[in-house]
Predict the structure.
Amino acid sequence: MNIVLLSGGSGKRLWPLSNDIRSKQFIKIFKNLDGSYESMVQRVYRQIKNMDADAVITIATSKTQVSAIHNQLGEEVGISVEPCRRDTFPAIALAASYLHDVKGIQEHEAIVVCPVDPYVNEDYFQAVQELSHQAETGQANLVLMGIEPTYPSEKYGYIIPTDNQSFSKVETFKEKPDRKTAETYIRQGALWNSGVFAFQLKYLLDKSHELMDYVNYQDLFERYESLPRISFDYAVAEKEKNIQAMRFQGQWKDLGTWNTLSEAMEEPAIGKVIMDESCENVHVVNEMDVPVLAMGLKDIVIGASSEGILISDKAQSSFIKPYVDSISQQIMFAEKSWGLYKVIDVAEDALTVKITLNPGEQMNYHSHKNRDEVWVVINGTGRTIVEGAERRVKSGDVILMQAEDRHTIMADSVLTLIEIQLGAEISTQDKQKFKLEGEE
Amino acid sequence: MNIVLLSGGSGKRLWPLSNDIRSKQFIKIFKNLDGSYESMVQRVYRQIKNMDADAVITIATSKTQVSAIHNQLGEEVGISVEPCRRDTFPAIALAASYLHDVKGIQEHEAIVVCPVDPYVNEDYFQAVQELSHQAETGQANLVLMGIEPTYPSEKYGYIIPTDNQSFSKVETFKEKPDRKTAETYIRQGALWNSGVFAFQLKYLLDKSHELMDYVNYQDLFERYESLPRISFDYAVAEKEKNIQAMRFQGQWKDLGTWNTLSEAMEEPAIGKVIMDESCENVHVVNEMDVPVLAMGLKDIVIGASSEGILISDKAQSSFIKPYVDSISQQIMFAEKSWGLYKVIDVAEDALTVKITLNPGEQMNYHSHKNRDEVWVVINGTGRTIVEGAERRVKSGDVILMQAEDRHTIMADSVLTLIEIQLGAEISTQDKQKFKLEGEE
């Protein structure tokens, strides 16, 4: 099976655990049997591999998520990187070209496109596989997975099929309706649109060439910025006459809000948390180093990270977005290709950051125009290069870098350092990258 | 008027704003007209000085609070420092000796003893002044201030007077009763014991010499550790036959819990706080640099500091102590004589601290046996001395100290630095102090 996972999203609705760099699918919130935690993307990846060890999984995502994906899924996973955001149709077209031109997938093979963040069980991916088989038969150009509605939700789009068979021809799509209209749809046998669909690769390549002018994957990648912002639903699904929908009745949850996320937590608290006995239906995720003490609370979610602290009534938490939009501060933590970055102090003309490099990893060789930096190694061993001069470093060593000095650090073991940035104009934009001698 | 303010207390009940070093009376929580905030001790000090600019105010406290008191009240305030904790009778005896032997207060003058943390208005200190005048008349050996009860509280001791006059002879004292007994007391005209009392200095000096063997203030100070732990109530009040109580009917609040503290807040939020419109009766004190977002909460207090985060139902907050007792971590912030100390990162074998020195201030000249230290100055100018070698420092300068190196820093302007402590056994106990050349 070939599966394309769409990994998008900003980080507003699950603030402060998500931010502009870490989307919700990377929050480690699901407990494994061994006591560790996995993220939405790790859970989905594991579930697919459990069902079909040979599945070819490609993640369609933006540049900003590549480091997090490799950190969480390893180097093996295929990634189709969107140079910028251009909505789902260009993203799926790019992934399709990648599968054909780079991965050598044959045109008659089926591709399933699936959001990266449904909270589901194994039966869901069995259904995904059936969807793939159905697309291979060629009976329809597009095969959708519809979810049997459990209530007249106003949050989802609806698929109206012509009958109640497990595979039905699709009559029409309806956008998010009001409650009353949703009730009418459900009486007519309508399904929620899960965002999962399958097609033969040739179908999508043809559509792509029909709608966009490009030669192959590399060409499409280079032109990406000039492509129109257009959704797959609008560009393809709504215009296609030959569509089938498959009914799925198993568990399917959209973990888009703190409320739904907390329902999927195996235990009420993650991190340093103390709850008194009078707490009822309280969920806490604390990524800070200091404890959270919760007393006498009911139906509350609490999230704490370097970005800030959320305390919300569960139902109310779905209205979080405008409040998070009103917060303007720099990114306080980030998962990098080489490890972790966490701001620990913000002062006038100075920023203090804790940096953890994974063994064998290194930063880019880079410089800053407008700031000096001081590194104090607090744990581990490695090497630094500053203006071409290499030096072995260990805990207690101090490395000084003036503005414009090119510098990097390589970790032998896990290497932790405190970085102090000094200057009147500190900005993440202020970074020039260089090649080290011998690098290509 | 001579007034002794008793400033004791650990920091459990108002965690995380208070800790083992910062007692609740130093939390800046009351808004001034100019938009700044004052603490309980600052508010009480200001109220006394407003009423009687010539009042001689002495704060009886332990060594650990001296820096905070000077920082908040200035260098002028009299402090009677208890070398260790020995309950209220030795503390009051020491303060009385200090007033007589050091401050030259005459034996016939009245002294009022008062807790440092009542939340009161000006009328309270007018009553305190009346209490002082009454003690001066010598009609009774001890004059107490009793509070007219507003409900049958189980939290307070009760004074049973012989009649309902504004000054009455005291018949007896009753310890914290149950609700039913409290109701009976109140029907009998009983008063809450406010902990405020007045006497002529001679009375207390006589009692002190009667119960403890010492010559003068200096001698008592030196013997302090060998004194018995005994309360003033037990040693003096309960045995004294000639006591009067004065009735006070004005506002009097004991800000001992988050619930009562929040009632005294002028506005619902201090610090970076966003509350949505659906919050009702919510109070937030956020001393962190990152925002707190509160949504859909009712009757909740939230406190956040470097120590941790409390979210509690208001009524439930009075049961906080055992939960705070269960938290074991190092002190995360402290107000020092020279400025502020805040832990910003805790790692294995390393601690990162942000240190702010006030202009003209300096640390003790000191060394550590078991840790190296690195200072990176991030703001301001000053001088460092390391092993006798003096050096001018400014933002960006790095100072290295090996274990055993004697070191200090003096601030010209406000001086901020990041201190990185490195070693396997980092402890606040690991500190040896030295004199600088020319110091006495």
Notes: The CA atoms of residues 9 and 98 of chain B lie 21 Å apart. The longest helix of chain B spans residues 122-137.
